[in-house]
Amino acid sequence: MFTRFRAGAEGGSDDLPCDTICPTCPCILACEISDEAPMNDLPIGIFDSGVGGLTVYRALHDRLSEERFVYLGDTARVPYGTKSLSTVERYAIENARFLEAHGIKLLVVACNTASALALPAIRESVGVPVVGMVGPGSRAVVRAAAGREIGVIATESTIRSGAYAREIARLAPGAEVVERACPLFVALAEEGWAETEVARQVAAEYLQDLRGGRVGALVLGCTHYPILRGVIQETLGGDVQLVDSGEAAAEAVAEVLDAEGLRRREFDTHTGRLLKERARRGRLCDDLDHFYVTDAAERFARVAERFLGSAPRVLEAVEVWGTDGLNTAERTVQT
Fold it and tell me: What is the pTM of this model?
């Protein structure tokens, strides 16, 4: 299947007709992303620079099991951490507009780098509520620390941005914050090495000066890191409370849905009954959720199965590009 999308193009996108989006079950998705679909019945959009946001998808699914989700992994342009602020903003806006054009009621920026660098620009670019990682994660770790020292582990770009430190300082002036970049955790998670001796050695090296009760709570400031939660907890000891920024974001999404009256209400439809059944069984990655990637769909599916226990049943390769003059040439991605 070939799909192309131009962010910001007049008319929204150059996508295939909606009845080709989900060839396995078009009645589930195509009819509910039309202009006539009630806002409450639209899915929640999630984007990440790659696969790490799948842990946020799981957290959202666990917290909001009767909602549908649309996920975009920008695997063609990962990693964002090496890019300039203007480039991260451009990529993030393109991703946000892509998901908005597909019909969503709320957007989750499941990428700590994009949340740290581009959240204001994203919010200005779309007309739906936007939830990032940094705010919810900071609020949760401040509560968990209860006045004790706070630890933040994240990728180098997120640590360099100072986003967590600033937000924690705003929420708890005077709080002591220790930040550490743990870049190898990403590869360990994706390669399935989370429970190995190698992972334990890397964790011991990265976290050695956070041990011994130095911090009361630590926020996992990268969406890959929950995959290594066991090793991180083992390294720091049981007295340190770990905060998953994805789980904190899922709680924030639930609050926004309630405040805005956006919870799904209709369960008498075919899709609604399927959602009820899915919630009862706790299924992930079924036909009710749609996954898009911008490259390497097969690898994404493999890592998704490693992270979630099942591969996406509806996975589509797309190309997302904006109006930047450097991106005038049209390319095609095939699945």
Answer: 0.83
